[in-house]
Amino acid sequence: MAVLTAAQARDSRAARLRRKIQDNLLAYAFMAAGLVCFAFFSWYPLVRGVILSFQQNNFVTPPYWVGLENYQTLFDDPLFYTAWKNTLLFTGLALVFGFVLPFFIAVLLNEFRHFSGFFRVLVYLPVMLPPIVAVLLWRYFYDPGNGLFNTLLRGVGLPESQWTQSSSTAMISLVLVSTWANLGGATLMYLAALQGIQGELYEAAELDGASIWQRLRHVTLPQMRFIMLVLLLLQIIATMQVFIEPFALTGTSNPDTITVLILVYRYAFTVNQDFGLAAAMSVLLFVVLGAFSALYLRLTRTGD
């Protein structure tokens, strides 16, 4: 009897499991489809890229294993250090403009009572343009001959600039393009966070005699700390992967604007034509961004 009871219990559990699977079969199917897509388009390229970084491969002749030789070649290349320096410089300048400026624009838009929808669309409009279209538009602005900026400078009697052709202005020119093209997304996220702050907090601060800057410092910034930390991390990751702006405006051979991804492009398609070397550079960028993200999340979690 005890054996029969145990068998019945097993059958009952199996029946419940079958019913649970049948009831959630559609959900499992959707989840499996998502996992397959994620594995095929994310995990497989990641693993394939790591393997490729240990090979010499031009996808024409058969690849062969070179071990750590690709990484040694990277560290022996002077452009490797130039690319990292330029990338870090671009990231730093882009954060000065692209992280701080959207916040103050959002604060300004939050104070508007009329035409607020129009100004939101106006701020977000550059994001709606394809990135290459935005860059080509600014390429016309920067044209040293008949470009918009030099035309305006000539009109007011000021000296013209070479913009992207000059080593002193090339990087800041790229930063301005990137900031203008991506300003709208961060601004709207800041604006949404601002509108979620309770008005009673500002009213209490006003009753205590707080000025505008004091309300901004003691009410607005603490309430927006989380969204600002998230956007800071995302913007650092995005700007470290800058490619379109230098590629379209200054090319792949200008040492003043060669970034990490431009160097990856050079290794793969122009100078070396070695996808293994390009993969090694990409793996290093992945490791740097992964380590930075882990450290950043740990520090911000500790701060909480």
From TrEMBL:
Keywords: Cell membrane, Membrane, Transmembrane, Transmembrane helix, Transport. It holds the Pfam family BPD_transp_1. GO terms for cellular component: plasma membrane. Its main location: membrane. GO terms for biological process: transmembrane transport. Residues 84-296 form the ABC transmembrane type-1 domain. SUPFAM superfamilies: MetI-like (SSF161098). The chain crosses the membrane at residues 25-44, 88-109, 121-141, 170-193, 226-244, 275-297. Belongs to the binding-protein-dependent transport system permease family. This is Sugar ABC transporter permease. It comes from Actinoplanes friuliensis DSM 7358. The lineage of its organism: Bacteria, Bacillati, Actinomycetota, Actinomycetes, Micromonosporales.
